[in-house]
Amino acid sequence: MSIRIREFRGKGIAIRGNDIDTDRIIPARFMKCVTFEGLGAYAFNDERVDAEGKSKGHPFDNPSFAGHPVLVSNANFGCGSSREHAPQALRDWGIRALICESFAEIFAGNCSSLGMPAVTLGHDEINELQKLLEKEPDIEILINLENLTIRAKDKEWKASMTDAYRNALLDGSWDSTAVLIEAGSDIDKVAEELPYI
What we know:
This protein is of the alpha/beta class. Helix content is 32%, strand content 16%.
């Protein structure tokens, strides 16, 4: 049965910066894998650690944000190459939803196909939310996909999202495996009518 995603709740982690591309999210040298499992360990690797492997103080290494599933960043997040390893690496690290000023279109689509909402807020609202998270890391964020609002503490903002991705999350069609299983008998009927089967 397909999973319908109407809202998401979780604590947030602020990753500041515009034009954070997929190579920054997961450097290409870590993509020599058969599955996506384990990629989370290398998410933002070059920004997290120096040549000796020592932490540079990136938010992903800050214990205050450990396990926080909502990534909050700025404009044009996920730009660059269209590698689906980038959202997969974030997902493997523990990210389950993203709120940014804007996304690269293919990146947002890849997030949607994983059941990860990629929702946008304006520049001032993102800045306000990031400051709130940095000051009070344990604040819970509520992303409501039905009415497209985001709430944190006593604040509420009107959000936006690409209609196709939002509708896919709301009706469960983002989960292509479940959709195929549910449509199994219909697929069999069509296959029986094909002359070359």
